[in-house]
Amino acid sequence: MQTATKVPRPRGSVWTDPKARAWIFQLLAIVLVVAMGWFLYDNTMTNLEKRGITTGFAFLNNTAGFGIAQHLIEYTESDSYGRVFLIGLLNTLLVSVIGIVMATLLGFLLGVARLSPNWLMRQLATVYIEIFRNIPPLLQILFWYFAVMLSLPGPRQSLSLLDTFFINSRGLYMPSPTLSDTFGLFMAALVLSVVAIVFLARWAKARREASGQIFPVALSAVGILLVVPGLAVMVAGSPVVWAIPELTGFNFRNGWVMIPELIALTLALTMYTAAFIAEIVRSGIQSVSHGQTEAAYSLGLPAGRTLRLVIIPQALRVIIPPLTSQYLNLAKNSSLAAAIGYPEMVSLFAGTVLNQTGQAIEVIAITMSVYLAISISISMLMNWYNKRIALIER
């Protein structure tokens, strides 16, 4: 009996192998990108050399020679451009953090109000959202700065609140604290209060899961925060000494000042971003099945606790991803401050420093890197929180 002999299959070329073709195309793409990058770099360096323009970051050690309206750290005109960069970074972070916190609070309130059974509250929230989200943020910044802040009276006719806070065309003047010798005792009492509240919240949660009985944790936490640190203040005295702004001559002295550019920028970005956050919150709440609300009501939970304990925790899984995009937009929109002269990264570093030094490539690269780092940090933080609250299936 004859056995069939296997005929060897002819080996094809690399172009007939899908894996080989994939590797070849990827290598060609890498080579093309590297070659393009090298061409741009070589062309840029050649042009800079022909024009006698020096490169590098040594200019950061040179003296700046100009003043800055707002700086969170000590600064004089004899400081370097490196310190100017740090001041611009801190001012950018200040606007971003304040704007994110205020826009989140306002956006959540508006989002809940959009679903309120109260007709007037629902319509007011709708009008707010439709107005502020459809006006470009730059126009809102210009409105708050030129039409509101600069139209306020001068320092001598300042608007005051309790003779402690004063607002005028030069900004908002607030008391500034100075730590006293009893501050350590006050902080110890405050830390003790926070620890007690944490244990109280855990005990209340375990009690609720075991018996269904609800303990008023929020009211108890407020009471603990008022009583324990309050006793420390009564025993040892005030932990801080407040410096009240005083009108001397043509301006106020002592205290803190929030310049009008910062107020206008913060208000505009907050109100603009809050309109988008409100719609995100509304859609997130509506994504939760109505059966969850009915089940909570059947267990005797009031509307407020149903929203806080049942609806919002489930809605957050839908809210967080688009909310991250709004945070990123707010941080990047802070660069619009250049239109009113607020000393953040773009107006201070990519504006004044660039004009004085002529180091366009280095200055723009540093500015772009800062906004990239801020955006990536926000994304990483929000992604971590999103994973933490994600549903875990059994």
TrEMBL record:
The chain crosses the membrane at residues 20-41, 53-73, 85-110, 131-152, 183-203, 215-242, 262-281, 336-354, 360-385. Residues 89-382 form the ABC transmembrane type-1 domain. The keyword Metal-binding does not apply. It is found in: Cell inner membrane; Cell membrane. GO terms for molecular function: transmembrane transporter activity. GO terms for biological process: amino acid transport. It comes from the Bacteria. Keywords: Amino-acid transport, Cell membrane, Membrane, Transmembrane, Transmembrane helix, Transport. Its main location: membrane. It is a multi-pass membrane protein. Pfam families: BPD_transp_1. Belongs to the binding-protein-dependent transport system permease family. HisMQ subfamily. PANTHER family: AMINO-ACID ABC TRANSPORTER PERMEASE PROTEIN YHDX-RELATED, MEMBRANE COMPONENT OF AMINO ACID ABC TRANSPORTER. This is ABC transporter permease subunit. It comes from Halopseudomonas laoshanensis.
